Amino acid sequence: MKLGIDNIKLPESKKRGPLGSLDLVKELGLSGIFFSTALDMSPTLDIGELREIRAKADELGLYLESGVGKINPYCSAEEPALRAAGDGDIIAGFTRMIEASAAIGCFELWVAPGNFKSEYRGRLANDRFRTDITWDDQLIGIEKVLQKLAPVARAHGAHVNIETHDEITSFEILRLIEKVGADCVGAVFDTANGLQRAEHPVFAAKRLAPFVRQTHIKDAYVGRAPGGLDFQTRPVGGGIVDFATILPILAEANPALNLSLEVAASVADKPRKANPRQCIEIDDPIWRAGHRDLTTEELDAYMALVDVYEQRVASGEIPNWEAYEASQYGYPSYEHQSYGFNEAIAFIKQSASHIETICRDKGITLNSAAADKKAA
Fold first, then answer.
1. Core vs surface per residue 59-81: b (16+ CB within 10 A) or e
2. Which pTM value belongs to this model?
């Protein structure tokens, strides 16, 4: 396994550009970078630019991962760059990204099934609960797009990998893989997003492990709050996710899996919005009706996980939602957001250290510069 980072959450990634971002990744002692789409490497999919990035990644000994983007046709209008990549033909745009990525040896390609709108509170923040189209109809649309991309992926020996994004469940991803084919469709396991669907991270890891081809390594605070449960990104090891159990599951299924940290973005790169509170409306009848696969056994295990975590919060070991938000982002006014470059780097280093420690303790080989230095 190798430990790297998602480019979107790397501080100053847009300012530095892809080549400069590779330098920062190396400076941080990480072993790779995950660009959400090929357009993040080259907006025009210029093969010369892409090969230059590939060459530098190889020179620095870094893994390079890429993606295709949001494949839910009902939210395509919110991602105009994807359609522009195909000169108005979004399937052509996706196809060009697959071809361009494969040309530089990126065969594992991220896709996501929807958008998350943090400015809205509760279930309406994500596409699962859109009121103009049902989620079942959106899943049908997603499958149709995947079926159109499947021949392209197969022709290039690539996989389009569906993230356990904010709005989809692991059960739904498994059904999509079964319908389209595991020879060209896999999963990107985000270790924390499933919490928003009341999925226990260990249960989800066991379900998806045989199909996980990319990752987002992330942790989160989950605690009771008015309207349901609060969700808040925390440094890896400071949240509710049990990485000591999950990492061996993933390593057994795919010992060469890349682990890409997805951390809190610097507010200099992405200022905090006035309503950052993500509420999991777990007791709402509409929310519950929208999760038909959720079993009593898993829900009980999930709430037990929340209970144990809340005990740590109550003891003072872990700051609650308000205290953490105030210390990092100036909550509630956000007039003095302090979480900048240095804070983001500290978040990355803390998260990386936790993963490195677990891998060492569990006997998992982790090929990162920082881990090699510690071992020496």
1. ebebbbbbbbbbbbbbbbeebee
2. 0.95
